[in-house]
Design brief:
The protein has 4 helices and 3 strands; from the N terminus they run H-H-E-E-H-H-E. By secondary structure, the protein is of the alpha+beta class. A 3-stranded mixed beta sheet has the order 1-2-3. The radius of gyration is 17 Å and the shape is elongated. The termini are far apart.
């Protein structure tokens, strides 16, 4: 068991240290990417989104509307830039709409 530190530590620092020590960053990145998609796209696109998954710097988004898929595919680079800006770092390099 880890030794308890007596110094006071802000909760945000404690959580980030816990994530780093337990190697949970990949899982947190997946959750953050999913949240960024839903925040940026709004209700109109989210109603047709069935799944959002991050794998190795590629964001896979499943859509139930082929028309929406074509429309979004025209602005892939802009969507990637917006998601990375929302996340605060360059996490997504490629976007696959299916």
């Amino acid at each position: 068991m880890a030794k308890r530190q007596n110094s006071h530590l802000p909760l945000s620092e404690a959580l980030s240290e816990f994530i780093k020590e337990n190697k949970l960053q990949k899982g947190m990145d997946k959750v953050d990417a999913r949240e960024a998609w839903s925040n940026l796209m709004g209700n109109g696109v989210n109603n047709y989104t069935t799944a959002v998954e991050l794998k190795n710097e590629t964001l896979f988004v499943s859509l139930s509307s082929s028309v929406l898929r074509e429309e979004l595919s025209l602005g892939k680079t802009k969507i990637i830039a917006m998601i990375n800006e929302e996340l605060g770092r360059e996490l997504v390099k490629k976007l696959v709409l299916r």
